[in-house]
Fold:
Amino acid sequence: MKIAACIILYHPDIADLEKNIRAIAGHVDTLILWRNSPEEIALPGDIPCEVIWMGNGDNQYMARPLNNCLSYCLDGGFDYLLTMDQDSEFVDFGGFLAQAMRLGKEPGYDRTLIFAPNVNGRYGPDPSVLPVESAITSGSLCKVRAAVECGGFRESYQIYWVDSEFCHRAHLKGWNIVTLTGFHLRQQFGKKTISHGVTSYNYSAQAYYFLFRNMLWMHREYRSNPSLKTILYTTRLYLRSILWGETGKGEKLRAVAGGFRHGLFGKYS
Structure:
């Protein structure tokens, strides 16, 4: 099997980035680093795989860079692409990859599009192979040709719900997603702070806009996913976060309102 990995970079912490690269680089043939911000990044010369730089420093968000990486991998004859955020940390990528490759050869797993890790211990300590509805892009080991045949990532979404929409569309086309719960990924969602027992996520106003707009776009297109229950829960969670513990409340609430307006009434196709 020929394996590539890609990491989307946006003003990265270089020490954390190097640590995360070393966790995966010894197990892949090629590492693609996509620059979504303009700073020059110097990496050590002993990275144990080929390193390819893409992106011109302009922020292209997530969907377009991921599609470009898929196209590169398809043209280069890669079988799988590992998609990563810069602030993700794989605990045992070598073990995860070995199990995914073994399963990929077994009957019943030929229609598996994504092998995903257990993100932040969501599925508990017992190791299993668990079919799931969706997986976040970070840590997902994706079958390249199948992902391209499914249409790739929805570029109009840009960021947020990109992974959920892609996974849902893959399911509709008969593909499966499984989590290998014995292998863990540590992922930071936002910049969490806790005050009086209330968690605040401290996303930017622009992030909140895309989060709400895309959630509603996806609901309009697929109706049952995300469900109304999920929409209500998400709205309550983040409004509470903004109102209780975040700065820039006015700007962020206007962004949420804009996300609702464009999500409910804007063109989503």
